[in-house]
Amino acid sequence: MKEANMFLDKLNTQRVGVFSVDLLNILKIPLFFFLIGNILFALLLFLRVRILADTFSASENKIIQAIVLGYMFLVVVGSLLAVLFLILS
């Protein structure tokens, strides 16, 4: 068991010159890109719904805009929490 832990510790951290590169930190980078993409998708959805609501007049326009605005708020707050957890881990 001790040998396995030593092997995993060597695998987890690589020494490159003076700096040490942690494998877990490298794997966090794609997650940041995914969260940024998620926020951009929510922003594009918000803009698309807003354009469609301005183009077509219907009684449900205000309800749909409120739902999308709530979705946008939840995505931004959820992404900020996810980034916080990624930084803390």
Annotation, overall tally of beta strands: 2
Which residue ranges are poorly predicted, with pLDDT under 50 across at least 5 consecutive positions? none
Averaging pLDDT over every residue, what do you get? 78
- Separation of the first and last Cα atoms: 25 Å
Number of helices: 3
Question: How large is the share of residues in beta strands?
Answer: 5-15%
Report the biggest beta sheet as strand number plus sense, adding barrel if it closes. Answer: 2 strands, antiparallel
Elements, N to C (H/E): HEEHH
Query: Which shape, going by the Cα principal axes?
Result: rod-shaped
Helix % is over 70%
Counting helices, strands and paired strands, the structural category is mainly alpha
Strands of the widest sheet, in order across it, are 1-2
Number of domains: 1
Q: What is the radius of gyration computed over CA atoms, rounded to a whole number of angstroms? A: 21 Å
Overview of the molecule:
The chain has 89 residues and is mostly helical. It has one domain (23-88). It has helices spanning 2-12, 23-55, 61-88, and strands spanning 13-16, 19-22. Strands 1-2 form a two-stranded antiparallel ribbon. Strand 1 (13-16) and strand 2 form a beta hairpin. Helix 2 (23-55) packs antiparallel against helix 3 (61-88). The protein is rod-shaped.
